[in-house]
Amino acid sequence: MSPSKQFQIILGGSLGARRLHSTMIFGLLKQHRWRRLRGQPFPKDWLRTIERNAPFFRRLSVNDQTELLGHIQVFLAEKRFEGCGGLELSDEICVTIAAQACLLLLHRETDYFPGLLTILVYPSVYMVEEKRQIQDHVWEEGTMTRLGETGRRMGSLVLSWDAAKSGAADPSDGKNVVLHEFAHQLDFENYAADGVPDLTTREQQLSWSEVMRTEFASLRAADETGIPTLLDTYGANNPAEFFAVSIEAFFERPCALRGRHPKLYAELQRYFRQDPAEYSAEQKHCR
To answer: Which of 4, 76, 80, 209 is the most exposed place for a label (fewest CB within 10 A)?
Structure first.
């Protein structure tokens, strides 16, 4: 081996080791910062806001309440909120949204929605210009109303405050725009918008694929024939939307979902490592 070739290999190995070392140091510093944030006293005004605006909180176990409050501390320190459409941000807005989003993080190792930097909040329904394909080579342009949206490359998430607040206030209607949009953020953690979050094992990936494919096909068939469904038929559009509406049902209608779609419920329960039926507002209907 020539001296120059040997030098290149050594240098390349050295640079790789430095990058690995830097990544490890950054990870340790990040974990230290998060532990410090989770250990800070939780502001009393924030707690009162959660108890008033997020009824599910009181039904959580004490341990889960403590974990959730810690996650909220990190979330609010890491994410930037911006008011849009004349909305003046308040602690109530930020804390209410954070409490719902962080419910998705309980019991799991988390990077706190790593692809998300900014949450944009409108006072109510907002309008967007949209171009969509309705047939081959046929596109439709127009103004659409929305309650929320996000995208894999956006780095941001948009919400209507009215919808975010009402979704938290009625925790068993099966509709929650915060859970829906943050479900998309979980979906993006495998670097795709395909309805598959970052699953840890091959076994889990195979089981997830089989169950979700079957359930998605069933929802599409129901949507086409007009059969009433527990899941929002908006999820029939594509696997990514199916994942999001499934999460809404999992947290808001867990008893009904477990009864009608037991395999889907089991997959979500395994992924989230929690059982919302234990603290659901519809708990009295669970069997």
So the answer is: 4
